[in-house]
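In response to a reviewer's request, we include the raw inputs and outputs for one of the modeled complexes. The two entities were modeled together in a single run.
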Amino acid sequence: MMRTLPALLVAASLALSGPAFAQKDPALDARLKRLEEELRCLVCQNQSLADSNAPLAEDLRREVHGLAAQGKNDEEIKQFLVQRYGDFVLYKPPVKSTTWLLWAGPFLLLLGGGAIWIAVLRRRSRNVGTEEGEAPVDSDAAAAGVEKARALLDDPRA
Amino acid sequence: MKSLRLLIPLAVFVVLVVFLWVGLSRDPREVPSPLIGKPAPVFTLPQLHEPGAKLSTADMKGQVWLLNVWASWCVSCRVEHPLLVELAKANVVPLIGLNYKDRNELGKAWLAQHGDPYRLSIVDADGRVGIDWGVYGVPETFVVDKQGIIRYKQIGPITTEALQQKILPLIRELQKA
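The model returned the following structure tokens for the whole complex.
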């Protein structure tokens, strides 16, 4: 009995879930799942529509499925939500006048950083340029030092 | 020249601090509604106390009105409710309640217990009209002008401050127009 009960339960659940599986369209489900992962749940804002269990997320998923059943494409479904909740529902914000800094910012920072890096490299190579492998030398001070050493060596009192 | 160059990191730091200050002091739960300045989404819904009768957005044309989204299960609705009752007593603006995803008998019992400030309440049992209005956190309150354009949205409970500084002045201005 202890052995057969789990087996019976599995068989029963398979028998019950069979027709439900047959009705579903796996391609559509996969597409909507992907779409819902790009949409933000407004109640628990760090969760996507696909992940959230909030009642509003459930309603919005139902709405998304309804729109898809009407033959609306992903872009039209997104527009439906943006018209009601604003760009905030999209995890990937659209490029427009208020968001260009957001999109271009990282590249601008990269360019600025690159420019500074090149400038530093140039200056360093100019200083090192005179004698390869040696630390930059202040030639006037060096000449003065040599002069002083010679004077000391030549000094008869030394 | 040299000292000016030393100021660059300080300037970058100050700009960063200003951005973070502004950014972090905002409430992320307040998502600006794209519906402000746009025509109010159309609905025709049954009334809570007279299910046979309906109210549609067209019925409210020609007057400034408030739509307050509420529910008996909504805890913060209790916070703003005394203010709404006061507002109704002052009789400055028609207040329509949208009973959002609630059961009729629970909604009616809630109004009987806490007082009914609404000219009438309409029933949005499945929340579909709520979605059209971009409702995501009850309570929410919309100010709609005579032409049926949404002019303001209060997300979360109405506060005395918001009522006196924003909502009432706006209503007076819209009523003159």
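As requested, we also summarize the result in words. Residues 98 and 142 of chain A are 58 Å apart (CA to CA). Confidence is low (pLDDT under 50) at residues 17-22 of chain A.
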